[in-house]
TrEMBL record:
One of its GO terms (molecular function) is histidinol dehydrogenase activity. The active site is at E319 (proton acceptor), H320 (proton acceptor). Pfam families: Histidinol_dh (PF00815). Catalyzes the sequential NAD-dependent oxidations of L-histidinol to L-histidinaldehyde and then to L-histidine. HAMAP family: HisD. The keyword GTP-binding does not apply. It comes from Bacillus suaedaesalsae. Gene3D superfamilies: 1.20.5.1300, Nitrogenase molybdenum iron protein domain (3.40.50.1980). This is Histidinol dehydrogenase.
Amino acid sequence: MNIIKNPVAATLKRTIEQGTQEQLLAVVNIIADVRRKGDEALFSLTEKFDAVKLNQLRVTEEEITTAYNELGADMLEIIREAARNIKDYHARQKRESWITTDENGTILGQKITPLDSVGVYVPGGLAAYPSSVLMNVIPALVAGVKRIVMVSPPQKDGKLPAGVVVAASELGVQEMYKVGGAQAIAALAYGTESIEKVDKIVGPGNIYVALAKREVFGTVAIDMIAGPSEIVVLADETARPEEVAADLLSQAEHDERASSVLVTSSISLANEVKAEVFKQLETLPRKEIASKSIENYGAIYITDTLNEAVELVNELAPEHLEIITEDPMALVGKIRHAGAIFLGRYSSEPIGDYFAGPNHVLPTNGTARFSSPLNVDEFTKKSSIISYSKQAMLENGHKVAAFARLEGLEAHARAVEYRLEETK
């Protein structure tokens, strides 16, 4: 983790999910296999990649009951409370259809319609991510999507993690399938005997999932191609080094390619945080992963002023931004590019990951310059409504015909003029 003083410009060292030619070829072959063989391919590929031999793909009622028993009442209530917070937040994003009328009889509007079906990919295998279930399913529910399908890689026992199953069940997800990887994406995009195809696929995954989503885009919609997690902490001398270090490591432990960066105007804070990072690493269970992340993608930038630090943050356009300064609200208006902004020492990034309410599916790799967190709009589509009256046609038809001829489209012009003739 290098300390860089007075940087002219700053960049996060990032890993773009392009994949190798071998990985891309493997994904293309998997997709083709699923399209040809359907469920047969899903069973064989699950056995090959997950070392699990399944006799059915769909999660059963018995497995759901078992999951509730394994999870326990305390954790169930935490999931339910988190779900309420996330739903309340996303309900505020919902937009309604609208209509406007003019005195000449013109009617214009926009009809907002939820997607018919959505596939949610939940990472799994060696880990469990019920938070991914909540963050991807709830905005779709708020939008009004009727059919939500969840897919996730099975564990070695042939089941999905209890937390994942319970989270999906609590949200009313009727279709849960024990299949992951590129083969799951192919099944959602093209359908098999067991899994009916969907209109959009959302949710994070490994490089094979990312490449598969990119390959099927166009056949279905996708949310984004997410890269490794990243955090920037913007802090001044009032920040506590042990808290800043812990926040940096909270992202570093995700992935050895994750980026953890401190931007500060305080040299003493920079030195103290660096020392604290390496101290805390020693007792971190995921030390090996976090150490590689810090070594290869961690950095500390020192600027002369806090305003310069803000500009540096805008250049970085991070996925997560924490502002831990004496007056965070004084700076938030100056931030132009960030996926999620956490204000003050008590707003540690994991608060947003699990519980506060805003979505944790965020733009990575600098795409916060032009992208937004996953939201309700991602699960709707919009249709324009246009109704011209006779009076409106008389007032504007000749203008439309002139515009059409300007573009050399005579049939367009005549389509309007036939109606003008009729109205005389």
